[in-house]
Design brief:
This protein is of the alpha+beta class. The protein has helices at residues 2-12, 15-20, 26-43, 49-57, 66-76, 88-94, 159-164, 185-195, 200-216, 219-232, 238-283, 297-301, 306-338, 340-361, 364-387, 389-395, 398-404; strands spanning 79-86, 100-102, 108-114, 119-123, 129-132, 144-152.
């Protein structure tokens, strides 16, 4: 141990040289390449020495920057590497075999073994393994520069590994929407009606077309009974001709009104999109800066695409919902002609419909708003990744990106 102590005292005379060294050191680059070869074998990851050399040639490689550069290069290739400046008393607790350490002579070394009070360190320049205490590695600031290698970054599909690991680098604060979206149903539908107030004439037109479609859709079931009765008697009468002509005419009118209905709804969708776009283009330049305090404008503008969801929902309501409702109403009226019992069944179905909608969909609005908030928060995060792509590529941890996404 005395020899190691003398060596440590002799090495301390070179601490100032290491602290003040700022010129690039080509030999240090080759040591870094060799060190990454050990890292490659440890984590079973293919790391090209030529790419590492090219990366280091574009940087200023000094003893003070080498560990940070290696950590950046490793993170960009899916490795979890942490440069640390430890007190000598913490080295034995934190260091592990395979970690890289900066020696006092500005060389890189790898820790091969950790014992109770000493470390076995191999120097890449000398190729020798020395046993030394943590104090022998401390620089003029009484710190030991260490690059701790935790392993590979987990794949974003490997949920079991992510959930079982306790690594700090994997933990991330999940994105959330800071706005309060607890609007009640009355306010939401009031906003919708206000938006559609200028389209009242077209809505009435669609309702008329839907009513005609519902009426003519009953042509086949109403006329088919008469045709079946005539055919069953084995007679060919003028009644069959009239009924067939009525069915043909009814189906033609059904198709014509259905086409007009689709055309009107399509025009309604176009005007809804155009009016919303023009309204936002008018309002955005006039907004006060105080209204956007603490907000990111482009992320808020993404909510414009809610109009696309509104177009789809409006189409379903106007094209399908209105037609089905009218068909159900007319069908119930016709059923009452056959028997009063059908009237009771129809009234029960009508009364049960609001209960069904309220029971199953009472939290539907809030859930939809929450889903929309998370979608836009995710879109905002992906935009940030695209905007700061170079920064995330060089300095960001892939595990953090995957966890936050």
């Amino acid at each position: 141990m005395s020899q190691h102590g003398d060596g440590a005292l002799g090495d301390r005379s070179r601490k100032t040289d290491r602290a003040t060294s700022t010129s690039p050191d080509p030999s240090l680059e080759e040591q870094a390449v060799e060190a990454f070869g050990i890292v490659q074998r440890r984590v079973d990851r293919d790391v090209s020495p030529e790419r590492l050399r090219g990366f280091l040639q574009m940087k200023t490689v000094t003893p003070d920057t080498i560990l940070g550069l290696l950590a950046d290069y490793g993170r960009a290739r899916g490795l979890v590497m942490k440069p640390q400046a430890l007190a000598p008393s913490d080295v034995l607790k934190e260091a592990a075999p395979g970690d890289l350490v900066l020696l006092l002579d500005s060389d890189l070394g790898v820790i091969e073994n950790v014992r109770t009070s000493v470390l076995s360190v191999r120097s890449f320049r000398r190729g020798e393994v020395e046993r030394m205490g943590p104090d022998a590695l401390a620089d003029s600031e009484e710190t030991v520069s260490l690059l701790h290698i935790e392993g590979e970054t987990p794949h974003f599909l490997d949920s079991e590994q992510q959930s079982s690991s306790g690594s700090d680098v994997r933990s991330a604060e999940y994105i959330h929407d800071p706005h309060d979206h607890r609007e009640n149903i009355e306010e939401t539908f009031a906003s919708l009606l206000s938006l559609l107030s200028d389209e009242g004439q077209d809505l009435v037109t669609v309702a008329v077309y839907a009513a005609m479609v519902a009426i003519f859709s009953l042509t086949v079931p109403l006329a088919s009974q008469g045709i079946i009765d005539s055919v069953s008697l084995g007679t060919f009468t003028n009644q069959i001709v009239v009924l067939c002509a009525a069915i043909t005419l009814g189906l033609l009118l059904y198709g014509g009104f259905d086409i007009l209905k689709y055309y009107t709804v399509d025009m309604l969708q176009r005007r809804l999109f155009a009016s919303t776009s023009m309204e936002m283009a008018y309002r955005l330049p006039l907004m006060k800066r105080s209204e956007l305090e603490g907000e990111y404008g482009p992320a808020l503008v993404n909510r414009f695409f809610d109009v696309v969801s509104m177009q789809k929902s409006l189409t379903k309501i106007l094209l399908d919902g209105m037609v089905y409702a009218l068909i159900a109403l007319v069908s119930l009226i016709l059923l009452t002609v056959y028997s009063s019992l059908f009237l009771i069944v129809g009234l029960m179905a009508v009364l049960f419909t609001p209960v069904l909608i309220w029971g199953l969909g009472r939290r539907g609005l809030r859930t939809s708003i929450e889903q929309s908030s998370f979608k836009y928060a995710t879109a905002h995060w992906l935009e940030a990744l695209a905007r700061c792509q170079q920064s995330f590529k060089l300095n960001g941890s892939p595990s953090y990106v995957h966890a936050r996404t």
